[in-house]
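The following record pairs a protein chain with its ligand, pyridoxal-5'-phosphate.
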Amino acid sequence: MANLFDRWAPLMAQRDALFGDGINPFNVVMDEVLSQTEATIGGRHTILVGTNNYLGLTFQPEALKAAHDALDACGTGTTGSRMANGTYYGHKDLETALCDFFQKKHAMVFSTGFLANMGILSTLMGPEDFILMDADCHASIYDGVRGSSAQVIRFKHNDPADLDKRLARLADKPGNKLIVVEGIYSMLGDKAPMAEFAAVKRKYENVYLLSDEAHSMGVCGRYGRGVPEEAGVEDDVDFIVGTFSKSVGTVGGFCVSNLDNFDTLRLVTRAYIFTASLPPSVVASATVNLEIIKNGGVLRKRIERNSEQLHSGLAALGLKIASDVSPVVAVVAPDPVTAIAFWRGLIEAGVYVNLALPPATPFGYCLLRASICAAHTEEQLDRVIGIFADVATKLGLIDTDTQKVAARA
Ligand SMILES: Cc1ncc(COP(=O)(O)O)c(C=O)c1O
């Protein structure tokens, strides 16, 4: 009888050949978490430049206190679904805080951002409807639309003209249409042209817009409401999906909307109904951190400054950077073998970044994905840039003359 796992044998063989016996980039263990930006990994003090802890709120004292209080008051978990015994006062308070934060009438809290996308996207549109999604959307969006009975159409990444063309073809179809985009894309940190997408949406009847603000919440917009706020088109975005696992510094997901009858979704969304709700301690820390994010102008400035430092520092070395200045700095390696050697060189010198390989990356890039935290210091980022320089030089990715020029700059 064939082994159950045989169909993945080629993948496993390829992985074994690539990783050999060295440190596996997809199996990193944090032995000790020292702060938002530092940990001990493999016995080595390491600067973390590959988290999604954009605002550095994971050790925020008020959030820690709220979480401890909730643990004492309510225990370690709810042991139930939101629809049954898993809605505590904290879940309702968090939904109220989300409505206040995003200035929307309705909010639904899910157990993860993945489940929020799965739940909303598989449920919202019916068999007569259409979902038009950006081709570079996250796996949770792909999995969500896969569960939908609507027809799914992909348009070119960040291309409002392509979306317009596809919507025009559907103009005489009676069904509703849902456009799905992300505010900032995780791999290259590129931003959606949200104002242009909103303008395309306004041209047609029965069209809704959903934006996943996972990577832009807290980072973009004066009050951290993400790319729709920054682009001045919040009223055009009918649904914002997001996560607490990045800027909010904990775990969980949500969807907010101004549409009447939004709460109907609580009765029909399987990823909301058939899973346990978030632990009260998580809910309490998310609620506190939302308030900090709203008033987090100083943190957003720090991210901007840090992004500029890391981006310009790595670009000056002569490395190929696939991202614009953003909290994600994606360095391109020429091939998977070099990318792994690069990643290992960094981790052995005390820098953790994410390794991202095709097919998980756009354009088939092999990426060293660095990401910024507001809590990174100038000295930490200087050190990171220096270590990138050493490792890249050893791998022959930059010549020493370029490096000398960079050091003088
Ligand atoms: C764009 C996007 N959406 C959704 C998610 C899922 O978020 P969560 O970690 O809360 O499941 C992620 C996480 O990587 C993401 O990058």
